[in-house]
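Hi R.,

As promised on Friday, here is the backbone we talked about, encoded as structure tokens. Could you run it through your design pipeline when you get a chance and send me back a sequence?
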């Protein structure tokens, strides 16, 4: 076989090898791309799952907000001559840098087994609702206090109830507020609060 023919055969062999290697590289690249896509999909799904907060995580995040509930309490009408009905109460704390004049609080209630209770007010028709809100405007309620200053607490938030079964556990959060200078804030975690507590068991 002449040198020319031998060279041609070698060239053909090299070309076949190169094509095979290129195909292998292409196959690996395709597999890697596919794995990359799957990983991205899983990451997105995991991210969506992570966005769903547990009750404990939600409570911790709520306590870091510009205004938050710093404690809740159940008042029995029989324990105080000033109360005509039982009531849910909350203390709110101004963690912002503005003087807060008005705000809205949301309440959810639960029985001794941690099951949700529909909150009903005295003399109210119907069966009530799993989540109720109350608005406070300190400029309208009378008294000397017209706003809540930064780092100050306010503990006169009261929502009268007439409930059976008995309310044992209360969850509350600040839904929104407005400052003396008309600066408004809406709670970005309010939907999480509703999703976790409205009509849901604590167990």
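Update: got your reply. Pasting your designed sequence below so it's all in one thread:
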């Amino acid at each position: 076989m002449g040198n020319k023919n031998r060279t041609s055969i070698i060239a053909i062999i090299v070309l076949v090898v190169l094509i095979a290697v290129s195909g292998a590289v292409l196959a690996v690249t395709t597999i890697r791309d596919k794995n990359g896509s799957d990983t991205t999909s899983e990451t997105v799904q995991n991210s969506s799952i992570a966005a769903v907060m547990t009750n404990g995580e939600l409570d911790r995040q709520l306590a870091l907000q510009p205004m938050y509930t710093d404690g809740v309490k159940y008042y029995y009408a029989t324990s105080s001559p000033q109360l005509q009905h039982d009531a849910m109460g909350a203390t709110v704390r101004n963690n912002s840098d503005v003087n807060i004049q008005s705000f809205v609080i949301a309440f959810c209630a639960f029985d001794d087994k941690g099951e949700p209770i529909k909150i009903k007010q005295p003399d109210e028709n119907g069966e009530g609702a799993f989540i109720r809100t109350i608005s406070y405007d300190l400029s309208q309620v009378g008294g000397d206090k017209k706003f809540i200053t930064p780092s100050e607490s306010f503990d006169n938030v009261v929502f009268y109830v007439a409930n059976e079964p008995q309310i044992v556990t209360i969850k509350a959060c600040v839904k929104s507020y407005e400052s003396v200078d008309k600066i408004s804030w809406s709670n970005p975690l309010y939907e999480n609060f509703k999703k976790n507590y409205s009509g849901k068991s604590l167990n």
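One thing I noticed while checking it: Strands lie at 67-75, 86-94, 100-110, 116-117, 131-137, 153-161, 169-179, 184-186.

Thanks again,
M.
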